[in-house]
Structure formats: structure tokens, C-alpha cells
Design brief:
Layout: E1 19-26, E2 29-33, E3 39-43, E4 50-60, H1 62-74, E5 87-90, E6 96-106, E7 116-124
Antiparallel strand pairs: 1-4, 2-3, 4-7, 5-6, 6-7
Amino acid sequence: MPSEFPLPSVSGSNPKPLIWYQLPEEFQVNFTEYDDGGRDTALQSGGSGIKRWVLNYDGLTETEAAVLDAHALSARLDENGFSAYSFNYRDRDGTLYSFVRYEKYERPAHQKKWAQARNIQLAKFL
């Protein structure tokens, strides 16, 4: 299992995201419709939604970009940026989430080795 996502709160040498926010939780709601037109609504099991975070980095040095790339590689990304393995992620308020995965990991083209960018989206599914 990969180590905790590399944020500055984990180690002071980890890169700091330029943009970092949580998307609104998504809930899966199921409906059962009856012959008389009535309907029951049920929230997914556990009652918690899918959590997603966006972290964008820019102006990374080669070393900082390598820290993020190494963590992503340890999570075994597929061609779409989704990870096979989960990891721990600590949110801004210090809440530790387990079983978080990469949903997207992008390496935009860059002109200079010392100014790289990474666009990351993390997700915690049920």
C-alpha cells in the first residue's frame, strides 16, 4: 500500500498545492417506484457520499515533481490516471481519510524542467 499522500503536513519537504479544494459530496440515491405511483427513496448504504479533492501544482522543481510522481507510481495508475491501490489522505482540517484513490493524475506539458505542473483529483468511494 502506498504511503500517505505527500502534503506539507506529512513532511515539510513535500510540495504545497497551488490550488486545493474539496468538491461537493456526491450521494447515490435509489428509488423504488410502485404501481400506485408512490415511491420510496433510499440513500446508499452508510449514508455518506463520494468525496473528491482537487489539487493543482505549478512551478514545481524536478525534485518536487518526482515526489508526486513516485507516490502516484506506487499507487499503480492506469492509463486514465485511476489508481489500483488506495492510500491515506489528510485534509486541510487534519481529518485523515483511508482508502483514497487517484481519480485523475495529469502531467501537463512544460517548457522548463524547473517549472512543472501536476493536476490531481483524489476520490474516496464507499
